[in-house]
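Moderator note: this is an archived Q&A kept for reference. The question asked for a predicted structure of one protein chain; the sequence and the answer are reproduced below.
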Amino acid sequence: MPELHDTIVRPVVTEKSSAAYGARKEYAFRVHSEATKPQIKAAIEALFKVSVTGVRTMIMRAKRRTYGRYAGRRPSWKKAIVTLKEGDAIEVFEG
C-alpha cells in the first residue's frame, strides 16, 4: 500500500480538467498505479482537508513517440477524477 504522498503523484492541470473543475467541481490527479479508490479518497481527504463524494479512475495508455530515427514510448499511468462535497475546494487548482 503506497503512503499518502506516494498515492497522489501530482495534479493534472489541462484545459479539459480546468473546464471540469469550473463546471462540476471535479479535480484530476495522477495517482500511483496500484492505488485503489478508497486509498485515493483517504489520501485526498487527509492531504487537502476536504470531503470526497466520488472517485473515478482510469488507466491512461502509453503513447508511442519518435525523435528523428529513434522510437520509444511514454509509460502508461493512472488518473483519478475526484468529486468533492459542495462548498469544498482545493487551493492547488484555484491559482
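Archived answer notes: The mean pLDDT is 90.
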